[in-house]
From TrEMBL:
GO BP: methylation
Stored InterPro entries: Methyltransf_11, SAM-dependent_MTases_sf
Name used for this protein in its record: Methyltransferase domain-containing protein
Highest taxon listed in the record's lineage: Bacteria
Molecular function in Gene Ontology: S-adenosylmethionine-dependent methyltransferase activity
Pfam families documented for this protein: Methyltransf_11
Stored SUPFAM superfamilies: S-adenosyl-L-methionine-dependent methyltransferases
Record domain Methyltransferase type: where: 259-358
This protein's record includes keyword Methyltransferase: yes
Length: 487
């Protein structure tokens, strides 16, 4: 039976692939819809693929001496295929319906992944990653009604099958126990189960899966900020000024090829003057993973008639451009949301020799003002973790990453006000999208996460009545870094 260590390479490859294992991480909030026949096609594909490719030796690799769950391979294939297809559909046109092309593309990506890594290893990976969500829920609730668990009511409501097999495995492995209270069957983690949960969590953190999980949730929230520009201006009244300041430091020139990473709704490129400075003889490409924000950027560029500007879907860690392409790569308020070491290496790769890297981003900063601790107490009450998935870089981290392959590093910090006077915006932007407390939020199962956001908006209304606008304005550090790719 494969251990987590045996699957290390597969999980790392999964984090680097377009494959999404859970519908939750594929931006699904309101259930999955399919274009006509797509549902049947995907179910059939999953069934046929499993019949054709599963073999007896895989039962030993995946289940060892545990009872075999004959539906697991098919469920693993199906759930991953629909999550990936949904992810494609959403990214390609913000569609919440899985269309035919996305389904085909997803099945192709998944079968290619399985060919490379083995069906048994894929199914084991799926089992560990989804079991993680079971552990999170049991650890959070302490005890759960067995039926709530089995139907995934509070932690995996998207399943189209029951979790009876998974519960049985957990039982056989001694990680859960069943007990009866008020004539109802309940389940809870045993001491061994709690230990196993921490082991799995630390492993998934170490291999990068938890960061990926937080990032996918974060991007889906950004994508739903329909009124992004307004929210940003209310929370960061100095935002426009700082965008301009970054631009003035980078000194773009007419005719340059520029990449803006994390372009969001296109405000930096279009409204701060980057596009106009570069002009029609140059090229400005904006890249961002949030389809909803890209739609806003594309709407603006269409009405602005600036054909030398394009906004495309993507992440800073994987750029679809050749080495040595850009004169300038620049990002405003986005580097802290990436896996910055990876992103900096990738951004350096696409930069021409002597080209400039420029970024202004947030760094870690502890706020312990009374209104803040009072408002966000439910988050601070969640147990802290020592996991890597906290969201903000420490002051030295990004300048240190620029020591390799860059010269002429400039780095400084400037304080800028953040206004906490609009509870809904603050929660949707800072808590849900920036995910300031990713490290603690990942302790929450699906249902509790959304509930907590709503609760924090209500608490914010009470905070507004108690504190003045001045008291709700906090200075937060913005780090500027500029460096040249070595010749
Ligand atoms: C605070 S917004 C800043 C947007 C824009 N630069 C501006 O000036 O308003 C952060 C942006 O980073 C994007 N982002 C998150 N993860 C990213 C990644 N891995 N690569 C590139 N952009 C990312 C988000 O989707 C979001 O649009």
């Amino acid at each position: 039976m494969y251990s987590l260590q045996d699957l290390r390479d597969v999980i790392v490859a999964l984090c680097d692939s377009p494959i999404v294992i859970s519908p939750w991480l594929a931006y699904i909030r309101y259930g999955v819809d399919f274009e006509s026949d797509v549902y049947e096609t995907m179910r059939d594909e999953a069934h046929e693929f499993s019949l054709l490719h599963w073999n007896e030796s895989y039962d030993i690799n995946v289940f060892g001496t545990l009872p075999v769950s004959p539906r697991l391979p098919e469920n693993a294939f199906y759930e991953t295929a629909i999550s990936t297809a949904y992810y494609y559909s959403y990214n390609q046109g913000k569609s919440t319906i899985i269309h035919q092309d996305a389904a085909k593309q997803a099945i192709w990506s998944l079968t290619t992944f399985i060919e490379q890594h083995g069906f048994d290893k894929f199914v084991s990976t799926y089992a560990y990653v989804t079991a993680y969500e079971n552990y999170v829920a049991l650890n959070y609730y302490g005890e759960m009604r067995e039926l709530d668990f089995v139907f995934g009511k509070l932690h995996r409501p998207w399943i189209t099958y029951t979790l009876r097999d998974e519960l049985m495995f957990m039982h056989v492995l001694g990680v859960v126990e069943v007990f009866i209270k008020n004539n109802t069957r309940y389940i809870r983690l045993t001491d061994l189960g709690k230990q196993r949960f921490f082991e799995i969590q630390h492993f998934l953190d170490e291999v990068g899966f938890l960061s990926l999980r937080s990032n996918l949730l974060r991007i889906s929230s950004f994508s739903e900020l329909n009124d992004y520009d307004n929210i940003f201006d209310v929370i960061f009244p100095m935002g426009k000024k700082i965008r301009k300041q970054l631009l003035d430091l980078a000194i773009p020139e007419p005719g340059m090829k520029v990449l803006e990473f994390g372009c969001g709704s296109g405000s930096f490129t279009l409204e701060s003057g980057l596009a106009d400075t570069v002009g029609p003889k140059g090229l400005v490409l904006g890249i961002d993973p949030a389809p909803g924000l890209l739609a806003q950027a594309n709407y603006k560029v269409k009405t602005a008639h600036k054909p030398w500007v394009q906004f495309v879907h993507g992440i800073a860690e994987h750029l679809p451009y050749a080495d040595n392409t850009f004169d300038l790569v620049i990002g405003f308020a986005s580097l802290h949301l990436t896996n910055w070491n990876k992103a900096i290496r990738e951004l350096r790769r696409v930069l021409k020799k002597g080209g400039l890297f420029a970024s202004a981003h947030s760094i870690h900063h502890q706020v312990d003002l009374p209104f803040f601790t009072e408002w966000f107490e439910p988050i601070f009450k969640l147990p802290g973790t020592t996991l890597n998935s906290s969201s903000m870089p420490l002051e030295k981290e990004i300048p240190n990453a620029l020591q390799v392959g860059f010269s002429d590093l400039q780095s400084f910090i400037q304080m800028a006000p953040t206004v906490y006077a609009h509870p809904e915006y603050v929660v949707r932007f800072l808590i849900q999208s920036v995910d300031l407390y990713a490290n603690r939020m990942l302790q929450l199962p699906w249902g509790e996460r959304q509930k907590l956001f709503d609760h924090l908006i209500d608490r914010g209304q009470e905070i507004l009545e108690k504190y003045s606008n001045e008291e709700l304005t906090v200075d937060y550090p913005v780090q500027f870094v500029l460096a040249r790719k070595v010749e």
